[in-house]
Inverse folding.
């Protein structure tokens, strides 16, 4: 190899990684970076679906402060996090402990618990709407036992709780799989040693299992809190496009969809709401990770 | 060549600046809007959820058009009903709107304002006389001059009721309500007699209901909404009484036309508006209900029933305007509207078509009875939905109505708030 060839190769080398990365970068640029930056820019304009906007500074954000529907959306999305995340951190762990053992027929239960995860959210939503309808199966059962019909889909709070229940029901299997992987790495000797020391099942769970899967619990907490804050499908399907009675069950992402779509959509305003959703989800992630770091130290 | 920091920075800057181009001026280019040239070239025609049931009809129509005008080629695309407006808005924003588009008046309004709908009064005025006057006017936009779509099919329908539920409540099933007062009285009776288990209506009042009740929806100039007048408050107060007595289904606050239709199908509610098209559905999906189905006229205080209008718009940016206009007219002319009407229970918007014996002679069946009655009422029917009433406005009205029904606001406060919100949205539309 001559000196000139060596220097040519040296000069070309830095380009090679970029060429390999180019397809990925293009996809990221087109489908992640571009929409993200567009949303940021639109948030400061009065752009509408068919009309290019002009720069309006912080007007959209100022309007948000006086928009009742925004506060309702923020309240419901926050309540969703508070209601759903603890259940999605704990219940899948308990479920994973139940199906962890290798006993005959356990594969059936693992599959059964995982089925809601692979089911289409639209189908799931429709089934639950039928079940919880004023004349649905659940209300018929309640009526039979003398409780009377309950307005699962007509009461503002029951509707939100019903949607939360569906989210938890659908998410259990997904997080259960994550926990199963984590539990497989917990040394059996630790449980055996604790048992020898006289620890019962509950104590072994608290002193051995929980510390061993703590980082997984943090991960589940972070993932489920971001998903819960951005909830759309479950509430949309159960509460209808208007967001429940008088729109009281509207979440922030539903508000983005309602405000920014259609031929008369206010894209600029919807983008401003999206920016708020983004900031809050990033804050949620940081909060969970910071709490984890503090616990570790 | 190595990538210098400067080049990398430039590339990143392009990534960031590129979206800024989206905020540029809205100056649109596009093809000629002259419709008088030679009819030739390739055009795209978009329908609204019609392929599933009418594939053969449209394929035949397109083949005939291409034969009549050699050199033309029509590509037919059909979009599902769900999210149709979103699909159009994405196409319109992306510059890929088809040449000929199936629209309703409320979809035409924003497209016309954005300069994307061809003004037919200017470019295809010779066809105006072929259509019913009211139908032609249905695609005119307040504040703008011109007509922005060919009228296509019209639809209206009776009020269906469940005779056995009426009978159970002690109401003569052969004497259905014909006025609003009778409707409200019957609804309260049914709720009382069934201990609130059977509601009569399943949906909250919409803007069409206010119109049919005789409430002025907009001011004379069409620049502001006005449905918060005494009559509007009166209607909402009546509905509040129905809601409290469970004569209005408890899930009405979140209902959609589809969900309330299902409630009627499962005999959970006693009355539901519908069209001639529904009779076939009842026969197939709910034979028990079909045996007990009662049919009565739409209730109206104005003497004019509500009608829905479909249109066919020509994209003003089309590169083949003569072919697009010719095809839009071909789809909506008297001959083709008539043949389409005979395939499905809809009504033509062309002048004189409703006088055809198909729409005037009964043969003793329920289907023809509904068809003849509907065709008769269409001659004086009104499309009560203001063309400027957007989806966002519908949501505002629905939410305020729900607050009034729940007792969180008085009917007057609720309607005042709804009008204020709708006017704000109207101003933002420009």
């Amino acid at each position: 190899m001559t000196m000139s060839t060596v220097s040519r190769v040296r000069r070309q080398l830095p380009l090679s990684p970029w060429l390999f990365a180019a397809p990925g970068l293009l996809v990221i640029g087109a489908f992640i970076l571009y929409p993200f930056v567009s949303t940021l820019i639109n948030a400061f304009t009065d752009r509408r679906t068919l009309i290019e906007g002009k720069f309006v500074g912080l007007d959209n954000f100022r309007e948000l402060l006086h928009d009742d529907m925004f506060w309702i959306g923020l309240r419901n999305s926050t309540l969703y996090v508070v209601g759903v995340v603890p259940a999605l951190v704990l219940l899948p762990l308990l479920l994973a402990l139940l199906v962890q053992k290798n006993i005959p027929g356990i594969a059936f239960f693992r599959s059964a618990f995982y089925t809601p995860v692979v089911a289409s959210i639209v189908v799931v939503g429709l089934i639950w709407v039928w079940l919880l309808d004023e004349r649905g199966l659940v209300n018929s059962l309640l009526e039979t036992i003398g409780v009377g019909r309950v307005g699962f889909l007509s009461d503002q709070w029951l509707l939100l709780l019903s949607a939360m229940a569906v989210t938890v029901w659908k998410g259990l299997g997904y997080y259960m799989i994550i926990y199963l992987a984590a539990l497989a790495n917990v040394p059996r000797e630790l449980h055996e040693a604790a048992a020898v020391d006289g620890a019962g099942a509950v104590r072994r769970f608290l002193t051995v299992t929980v510390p061993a899967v703590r980082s997984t619990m943090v991960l589940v907490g972070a993932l489920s809190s971001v998903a819960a804050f951005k909830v759309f499908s479950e509430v949309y399907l159960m509460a209808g496009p208007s967001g429940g009675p008088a729109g009281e069950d509207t979440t922030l992402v539903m508000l983005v969809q309602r405000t920014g779509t259609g031929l008369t959509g206010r894209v600029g305003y919807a983008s401003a709401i999206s920016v708020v959703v983004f900031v809050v989800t990033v804050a949620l992630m940081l909060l969970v990770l910071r709490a984890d770091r503090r616990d570790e130290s | 060549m190595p990538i210098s920091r400067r080049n990398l920075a430039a590339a990143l800057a392009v990534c960031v600046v590129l979206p800024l181009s989206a905020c540029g001026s809205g100056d649109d280019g596009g093809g000629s809007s002259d419709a008088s040239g030679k009819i030739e070239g390739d055009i795209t025609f978009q329908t609204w959820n019609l392929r599933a049931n009418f594939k053969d009809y449209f394929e035949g129509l397109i083949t005939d058009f291409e034969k009549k005008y050699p050199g033309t080629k029509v590509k037919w695309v059909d979009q599902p009903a769900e999210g149709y407006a979103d699909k159009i808005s994405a196409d319109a924003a992306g510059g890929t709107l088809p040449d000929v588009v199936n629209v309703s008046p409320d979809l035409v309004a924003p497209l016309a304002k954005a300069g994307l709908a061809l003004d037919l009064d200017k470019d295809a005025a010779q066809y105006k006389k072929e259509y019913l006057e009211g139908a032609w006017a249905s695609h005119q936009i307040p504040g703008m001059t011109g007509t922005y779509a060919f009228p296509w099919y019209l639809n209206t329908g009776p009020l269906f009721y469940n005779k056995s539920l009426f009978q159970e409540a002690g109401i003569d099933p052969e004497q259905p309500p014909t006025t609003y007062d009778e409707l409200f009285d019957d609804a309260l009776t049914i709720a009382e007699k069934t201990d609130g288990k059977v509601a009569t209506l399943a949906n909250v009042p919409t803007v069409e209901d206010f119109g049919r009740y005789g409430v002025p929806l907009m001011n004379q100039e069409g620049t502001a909404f006005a449905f918060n007048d005494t009559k509007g408050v009166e209607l909402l107060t009546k509905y509040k009484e129905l809601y409290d007595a469970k004569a209005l289904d408890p899930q009405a606050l979140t209902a959609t036309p589809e969900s309330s239709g299902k409630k009627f199908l499962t005999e959970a509610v006693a009355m539901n508006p519908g069209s001639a098209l529904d009779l076939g559905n009842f026969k197939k999906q709910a034979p028990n209900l079909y045996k007990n189905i009662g049919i009565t006229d739409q209730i109206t205080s104005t003497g004019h029933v509500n009608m829905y209008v479909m249109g066919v718009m020509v994209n003003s940016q089309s590169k083949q305007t003569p072919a697009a206009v010719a095809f839009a007219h071909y789809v909506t002319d008297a001959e083709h509207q008539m043949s389409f009407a005979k395939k499905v229970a809809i009504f033509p918007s062309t002048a004189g078509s409703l006088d055809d014996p198909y729409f005037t002679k009964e043969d003793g069946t329920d289907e023809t009875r509904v068809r003849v009655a509907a065709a008769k009422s269409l001659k004086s029917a009104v499309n009560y939905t203001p063309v400027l009433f957007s989806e966002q406005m519908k949501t505002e009205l629905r939410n305020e109505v729900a607050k009034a029904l729940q007792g969180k606001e008085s009917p007057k406060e609720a309607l005042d708030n709804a009008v204020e919100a709708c006017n704000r949205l109207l101003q933002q539309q420009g």
Chain A has a mean pLDDT of 91. Chain A touches chain B through 47 residues (CB under 8 Å). Residues 68-100 of chain A form the longest helix (33 residues). The CA atoms of residues 132 and 290 of chain A lie 39 Å apart.
